[in-house]
């Protein structure tokens, strides 16, 4: 299994489909399992941290017209500019993101506590020179999108966890930033989202992150060792 691929001909896989949006993984065989999302508000489609893939435009058109492309993590520029250009829309960044706009070959707009006038709320997750991340919460569908701090791929999770904190954040999980949410679903930047008992999965991930970190680090080390 490759860690990451940029093969644009790979057929994407839809990993969540609900009334109000969907998620996809453009390259299902890659170990990183980069996931992307679309939230729909009044037939306007907001594309979040997208990785392009075959058939994506058709999937988006089934839900409405693309209104904008959102980057929720400074490292998740991915294919945002290309998709925004193709749909003649802007890339939207949090108003406090620094150093990202200059790397995007597309028009850029900014948002604060709310994404445009969608009702989708934003929440600062991490704000530092090394890591800039914002979560998005759609109260209409009770959907929380967390681009990086939590995920469902194997290298985020210990045994028994459905949702895990990023290995680099295990000792300092964003409890205060995310504990106020009790979502129906949690969509993440790496792996398929959580769509059942999502609030419990999020709480378990945040409260047990530090305690379970030695187990996770040991599993990552074992996976990295040669057979």
TrEMBL record:
InterPro entries: RibonucZ/Hydroxyglut_hydro (IPR036866). It comes from the Archaea. This is Zn-dependent hydrolase, glyoxylase. The lineage of its organism: Archaea, Methanobacteriati, Methanobacteriota, Stenosarchaea group, Halobacteria.
